[in-house]
Amino acid sequence: MKVKICGLSTPDTIAAAVEGGAAYVGFVFFEKSSRLVSVDTARALAADVPPGVVKVGLFVNPDDAALEAVLDTVPLDMIQLHGAEPPERVVEVRGTHGLPVMKALGLRDESDLTALDTYAEVADQILVDAKPPAGGEVPGGNGLAFDWRLLSGRRWPLPWMLAGGLEADNVQRAANLTGATQVDLSSGVESAPGVKDPALIRAFLKAAGAERPGPPHDGPGLP
Ligand SMILES: O=C(O)c1ccccc1N[C@@H]1O[C@H](COP(=O)(O)O)[C@@H](O)[C@H]1O
């Protein structure tokens, strides 16, 4: 399984993710998140990430200036859009910034499934997360799972990731029910909100049977 560890902000947790076999590492550029990193910190951390591990920048409804401010400094490989960006904005971001885009979508019930098909036509990857709690200020990273049976038998013609409340104890069941071969998590490897724990990262990667593909390539939908 390919694993993305999101919300990394320290050298020791980057090392735990890379050495444990994470295929993706994520940096959060959303001011309201407890995992927010500065561009300078992200640039320094990115220097410790070997080729072949995809460096993802997480943004929520960013304008082009916000994206440029990060991309000018941090050598990201992929943009994760985790807000209410419409399909046209996904197309625009891909075209303007020249990086693959992974669009996150929240799922609560069957009525949310149609959007996945729509975004699958415009994004390089889709990320299926739980919907945030009503009135919540942060649209992801809440440690909440959705009913994984909603995804049973669903497939899209592009790479996709499962997210939302994943941890070492439930990742295999989640993958079995959904068919996911890629997973993304943040809260499940933290000792406190926003504080990543290297031991929990290693345990998760082991439980998930984390595998990283070989040489990097430049095609869409990395890796
Ligand atoms: O991690 C955050 O702080 C965050 C902020 C805003 C949007 C998304 C965020 N994280 C993403 O949320 C999912 C699920 O996280 P969790 O494992 O349930 O905590 C994951 O895709 C993160 O990339």
UniProtKB/TrEMBL annotation:
Signal peptide: none annotated. GO terms for biological process: L-tryptophan biosynthetic process. SUPFAM superfamilies: Ribulose-phoshate binding barrel (SSF51366). Its EC number is 5.3.1.24. It catalyses: N-(5-phospho-beta-D-ribosyl)anthranilate = 1-(2-carboxyphenylamino)-1-deoxy-D-ribulose 5-phosphate. One of its GO terms (molecular function) is phosphoribosylanthranilate isomerase activity. Keywords: Amino-acid biosynthesis, Aromatic amino acid biosynthesis, Isomerase, Tryptophan biosynthesis. Residues 3-206 form the N-(5'phosphoribosyl) anthranilate isomerase (PRAI) domain. Pathway: Amino-acid biosynthesis; L-tryptophan biosynthesis; L-tryptophan from chorismate: step 3/5. InterPro entries: Aldolase_TIM, PRAI_dom, RibuloseP-bd_barrel, TrpF_fam. NCBIfam families: PRK01222.1-1 (NF002295). PANTHER family: N-(5'-PHOSPHORIBOSYL)ANTHRANILATE ISOMERASE (PTHR42894). Belongs to the TrpF family. This is N-(5'-phosphoribosyl)anthranilate isomerase. The lineage of its organism: Bacteria, Pseudomonadati, Pseudomonadota, Alphaproteobacteria, Rhodobacterales.
